[in-house]
Amino acid sequence: MMERKLKVPLSTEKDIRLMEKENKIVFVVDNKATKEEIKKEVEERFKVKVLKVNTMYDTNGKKKAYVKLSEETPAIDIATELGLL
After folding, report:
1. Sign of the four-CA dihedral 13, 11, 22, 56
2. Could you list the pLDDT tens digit for every one of the 85 residues in the chain?
3. CATH number, domain with residue 44
4. Is residue 10 part of a domain?
C-alpha cells in the first residue's frame, strides 16, 4: 500500500479565499513528499485533475502544498467533501 503524503487539509481564512479565487486547496504534507507524489495522490484520492503543485515550509517547519485544480473541479467541492466548509 502506498504511504499517504497528504496529512491534513487547511481551512484558514486565507486558504478559503484561495479556494474561491484561485481554485487551490492547501494541505499539510509529508516533509519528504515530492510535488509529483502530492499531485498523484490528490488526483487518485479525489478523482480530479491537478494543474500545478507549489510547496513551502511554514515557520514551524511543516511542509504545505498549494494544489491548483483544473476548472472542471471546484476546490470548494473537495473542501465540502472533506468537511472543511
Report:
1. positive
2. 457 899 999 999 999 999 999 999 999 999 999 999 999 999 999 999 999 999 999 999 999 999 999 999 999 999 999 988 8
3. 3.30.70.330
4. yes
Measured at the CA of 44, the angle between CA 41 and CA 45, to 5 degrees, comes to: 80
Distance of alpha carbon 53 from the chain centroid: 8
pTM, to two decimals: 0.92
- For 6-39, the DSSP string reads EEEE---HHHHHHHHHH-EEEEEE-TT--HHHHH
Q: Is residue 77 part of a domain?
A: yes
Q: Determine, yes or no, domain membership for 19.
A: yes
CB 16 within 8 A of CB 39: no
How many structural domains is the chain composed of? 1
d(CA 30, CA 3): 10
- Residue 1 domain-assigned? no
